Amino acid sequence: MMHSTKQRLIDAGLSMLLEQGYNDLGIQALLTATSTPKGSFYHHFKDKEDFALQVIDAYMAQVHEGLDACLLERDRPPLARVRRFFEMTQQKYREDGYMGCLLGGLGQELSGVSEVFRRKIEACFSGIAERLGACLDEARQRGDIPAECDVRQMAELLVDCWEGAALRSRLRRDPESLNAMLDFYIRSVAAG
Length: 192
Description:
192 residues; 9 helices
């Protein structure tokens, strides 16, 4: 069980990192927003980088919960489960005011200047693609997508396309890019 102060900081940090990005996130603003003394922050985190990496871990725990809730739902066909995951993700984006994906935002901001963040975020995207690939493999085995498809490559492409659509959705504050991308992808893989 995570300490309540640490959890409060991570929850607020997730929201603030989505809105402001890493470079514009001030530790003092975070402490003020959470009514947390500076010493408590440094009790739980070595520095701002450590904090942001732990926020990413917490974000990924939420992503994996969503993946489990959708991809392990055996009463739905595999492609419907994949679609359901992205529909749930889109709903979360809507609730957050179309701020998009934390990984995408931080990846764009930091991947060129921080090897630590570049590796961490790439590993997160790869983990998501791996989970999606397993579900797409199930679809291939059922004959829902062509047998010769490289499901890992298809899963990587899905993550790439989604992240691009998430950026456009954030820019437009509108879900249409996400809907169009998802419709196109599912139609294309099912058609073979």
